[in-house]
Amino acid sequence: MAEKLLLTKHIDHPESHTLKHYQSVGGYQSSKKAITTMAPEEIVALVKESGLRGRGGAGFPTGMKWSFIPKTDKPKYLICNGDEGEPGTFKDRKLLENLPHMLIEGMIIAARAIDCHQGYIYIRGEFNKGIDIVSFAVEEAYKAGLLGKNIQGSGYDFDLAVYAGAGAYICGEESALINSLEGRRGHPRLKPPFPAISGLYNCPTVVNNVETLCNVPHILEMGSAEYKKIGTEKSPGTRIFSVSGHVNRPGVYEIELGTPLIDLINIQCQGVKDGKALKAVIPGGSSAPILTAEEVGRANMDFESIASLKSMLGSGAVIILSEETDLVETTYRLASFYAHESCGQCTPCREGTHWVKDLLGKIRKGEGSQKELDLILSLSRNMEGGTTICPLADACVMAVRPTIQKFTSEFTAKFKTNPEEINKQELIGQAG
Amino acid sequence: MGYQFSKNSEDTFKKIQGQFPDKRSLILPCLYFLQRDQGFVDNEGMQYIADRIGSPISLAQVYGVATFYTMYNKKPVGNFHIQICSNISCYLAGSDGVTQAFCSELGISKGQTTKDKSFTVEEVQCLGACGFGPVAQINDRYYENIKPQDVSGLIQALKAEAK
């Protein structure tokens, strides 16, 4: 099976991050086309037709997101979300460090489509190398007249600045990211109003993921019909998967959407590490419900196939778990993550994530019983489905509950031998 | 005379001022300047930031931001701030053993700083390098695929670098 390399065709070239190299392989032709020959509506229509869906997590159609921007005299803002933080995900880091000009070109086109003159690239603070490389690329683009006033003689102006986050997973949520960029605590905002109506500095704003924006120059170059030949009907294009865990060759792989998951494991990643049997796979980042080995055999890597297995493609982070994995421990690690990253605004999340972590901690130490397991399941019902401003609590539930349901015996095997010893008062005292 | 931006910070501050329509956006970058200049953020430095950005930005607002984000050190850390990822992919690759190796090599527990203030060891959440675990961030640099037996040599190399 041939890899359909669209974004990552030149990624392994040692100079792939330079303007010189990017232009030598046709870079900035699409942005030129967009700002000199196309009307904004045409660009939006083209991206809509291409069927491009967001690569950050939610998979929202990109062209539609752009079309929500109202025609007003207010300034409009475009933000690239490079706050990659979903455990298991490391593809945007690769794109930022190796293909910054593809991102900048995608942003110029997106900006033109929504009639915006100021963009920001928000990168998580830990990615020092990525921040340096992207900042340098922005300077290069300014010097070459590809950014700033009157880009490539088109009369169109677009300014771009790089902004470093400071270590908060929640800032990957777009309204929290906007607050962070405004110099506030990264609290997600109540919606509506959606960012398209009132986002950054209360102006219409589009927030797109790094990989999403990197797809845009290719759509302009190929046209929507050609682009749609890649992938499946409802999930066109390629996807860059971050594969980690128990495989022989972990890494970042761009494959056609719709590729069987088992092929990604066995062909690109050369199988489960040390020839062990597969136990389970988390297919789309830590917030995606776990798939059993049997379900993995039926899964194709596109939005619909994974959704039919009641999981999601999410951020494209595939975590492979071999037969030797202690799922109680991995689930505890994930719950600890959500407890650490909850912003604290909403009670079900602030309290719930910590309870889930503490209860799992008890089971993990061999001090738990059916009561703890039941309490996790009961709590989880109050943490999901719109009880909170943003989906962080839902994500915690998705990372924990399906694992308990599909692999119950792994949890019960760790129960304290005599469950009668657990008294309810002690449980409440410890978990609170 | 209290804290002032270093020359480098001052230059960058002037450069980025025009990038944001609302000067409140300068709080996060300024906190990075402060941290880079003196290793951590304190009230005096935050008051300076509030004054430099100017009204209506107050110390309370700067403090509110600084305490939300984990990358701002609210107290001094060692010259080498070793942050080891403990999340799922790094755990699967053996990060617990690496953390333990750092702690025993330096004779401290997680979250502590060595007496000579050279090293701080901390466990952190996902660093976004999951395919190359176990991963540690030491100051601005990422170290990938670390094995417990590499730790001793790594610390020696850092000590040599500091000299």
What can be said about this structure in brief?
With 432 residues, chain A is α/β, with parallel strands linked by helices.
Q: How are the elements arranged and paired?
A:
The complex is a heterodimer of chains A (432) and B (163).
Chain A: H1 19-24, H2 29-37, H3 40-50, H4 62-67, E1 77-82, H5 91-98, H6 100-113, E2 118-123, H7 128-143, E3 159-164, H8 174-181, E4 205-209, H9 210-222, H10 224-227, E5 238-245, E6 251-256, E7 259-260, H11 261-268, E8 278-282, E9 291-292, H12 293-296, E10 300-301, H13 303-308, E11 317-322, H14 327-341, H15 347-364, H16 370-381, H17 392-406, H18 408-412, H19 424-431
Parallel strand pairs in A: 1-2, 1-4, 2-3, 5-11
Antiparallel strand pairs in A: 5-6, 7-10, 8-9, 8-11
Helix pairs in contact in A: 2-6, 2-9, 3-6, 5-7, 6-9, 14-15, 14-17, 15-16, 15-17, 16-17
Chain B: H1 7-16, H2 27-38, H3 43-53, H4 59-68, E1 80-85, H5 88-92, H6 95-106, E2 119-124, E3 136-138, E4 141-143, H7 151-162
Parallel strand pairs in B: 1-2
Antiparallel strand pairs in B: 1-3, 3-4
Number of domain units of chain B: 2
Helix content of chain B: 40-55%
Tell me what the CATH architecture of the largest domain in chain B is: 3-Layer(aba) Sandwich
Q: In terms of per-residue confidence, which ranges of chain A show pLDDT below 50 for 5 or more consecutive residues?
A: none
Strand content of chain B: 5-15%
CATH topology of the largest domain in chain A: Rossmann fold
Q: Could you state the CATH homologous superfamily of the largest domain in chain A?
A: NADH-ubiquinone oxidoreductase 51kDa subunit
Radius of gyration of chain B over alpha carbons? 18 Å
Strand content of chain A: 5-15%
| Number of helices in the DSSP assignment of chain B | 7
Average pLDDT figure of chain A? 94
What's the CATH architecture name of the largest domain in chain A?
3-Layer(aba) Sandwich
Number of strands of chain A: 11
Regarding quaternary structure, what we see is: heterodimer
